[in-house]
Amino acid sequence: MASSTMAPELWTVTIPETGRAERLAERAEAAGWDGLAVTDSQNLVGDPFVSLALMAKVTGRLRLMTGVTNPATRHPAALATAIATVQEESGGRAVLGIGRGDTALFHLGRPPMPVVDFAVALGQVHTYLQGGTVDLDGYPSRLRWLDRAVAGPVPVDVAAAGPKVIALAAGVAERVTFAVGAELERVCWALGQARRSAAEAGRDDGAVSYGAYVTVGCHPDRKVARELVRGGVAAFTHFSAMPGSTGAGVPEQDRALVADVGARYDSNLHLVNQAEHSRLVPDDYVGRFAVVGDPDICIARLQELVDLGLDRLVLTGPSFGADPDQARVAGRLLRDEVLPALRT
Fold first, then answer.
1. Cα separation of 92 and 221, whole Å?
2. 66 pairs with which residues across the strands?
3. Share of the chain above pLDDT 70, in %
4. Which of 84, 203, 205, 270 has its CA 20 to 30 A from that of 329?
5. 73, 97, 95, 74: which is closest to 84 by C-alpha?
6. Whole-prediction pTM
């Protein structure tokens, strides 16, 4: 295993709830997080780009990312201009986290983007952000206002779970963040897929930064820790069973479970602990897919992921419906014990 010589970037995730953006960003920066990602689901929460711009004005070092947006609900030019605006307002701290779309498309009655369509749109977004010209059916299109921009291009971070999206991302984007859980074997598989694809695309070693979305339930009572994050585990599990998925990279012992969660997942109850699909995931699976336990256990497991060669961890915590008192305990332990230990 490749061991990291630098402390990883540590990110947290929130929703762009109106009226709370500035306060959430100030708290995240004060707690020591390197970055804050906000979700994009227009039928459920406020606009992420407005929230990110507000967050930029009350922070000085915190990096700001969509976690994640998609190029289906917004034209690639509009999407690129939105995040480039955040880049300018933040002095170069923006990251475009992007994927095929999940609840944002579900609530429009649409499935996630087919990989072939996502590939085209991703290439267009990336070209726009680099100041290039996109051919739109013979019409040359570029973001002309970027000629006046001073903060530099926005890095693109693709959320990836399956081999096709991993390969696509590694060949185009500056950053790939895996959404495959916390088991070392599967993260190793994803890293191997990405590194091979980057090499095949002719990219230099180090041209792509790798990270992972990791669900964390930090609590001294392991049973409580599992219950805090069961909805998040189900949500990330269903990402491995989206339309077009082949099950590649999923351990043999978990393939039937992953397929069942994907088939029965109700996006109206996304990330909800009490949802029927969340109850499908057994305790042992939650303990393997997520990082659950007391601070020492969480530190050890997260450090193992860093030692694989990951540059960043995007940590998601208690899901909707979690006991609020226990969720506060988990948040405090993560902030006060886990984060400082990972930095050393």
1. 41
2. 38
3. 99
4. 270
5. 95
6. 0.96
CATH number of 1-154: 3.20.20.30, 3.40.190.10, 2.140.10.10, 3.40.640.10? Answer: 3.20.20.30
Cα distances (angstroms) measured from residue 231 to each of 87, 235, 240, 289:
32, 6, 15, 12
Distance CA 57, CA 90 (A): 7
pLDDT of 146 over the 80 cut: yes
Contact at 8 Å (CB) between 232 and 168? no
48/168 Cα distance (integer angstroms): 25
Q: Hey, what are 152's tokens?
A: 């530099």
Q: Which pLDDT does position 6 carry in this prediction?
A: 74
Encoded tokens for 162? 């399956």
Of how many residues is the chain composed? 344
pLDDT of residue 248: 84
**Contact of 160 with 175, CB cutoff 8 Å:** no
Summarised one tens digit per residue, pLDDT across range 308-341 is 999 999 999 999 999 999 999 999 999 999 999 9
The answer to whether the CB of 76 falls within 8 A of the CB of 48 is: no
Q: How many CB atoms sit inside 10 A of residue 276's CB? A: 12
Summarised one tens digit per residue, pLDDT across range 152-189 is 999 999 999 999 999 999 999 999 999 999 999 999 99
Contact 76, 43 (CB under 8 A): no
The two tokens of residue 183 are 């088991």
Give the orientation angle of helix 115-129 with respect to helix 163-172, to 10 degrees. 20
Instruction: Count Cα neighbours of 228 within 13 Å in the Cβ-side half-sphere.
Output: 28
What are the angstrom distances between the C-alpha of 233 and each of 28, 223, 225, 272, 314?
A: 23, 15, 12, 10, 14
- Tokens 């012992």 locate to 253
Residues in contact with 221: Cβ distance below 8 Å, sequence separation at least 6, in sequence order: none
328 contact partners, CB below 8 Å, separation of at least 6? none
User: What is the spatial distance between Cα 169 and Cα 122, in angstroms, rounded to a whole number?
Assistant: 9
Instruction: Report the SS3 class of residue 94.
Output: strand
Q: How far apart are the first and last CA of the chain?
A: 19
Tell me the mean pLDDT in the region 124-142: 98
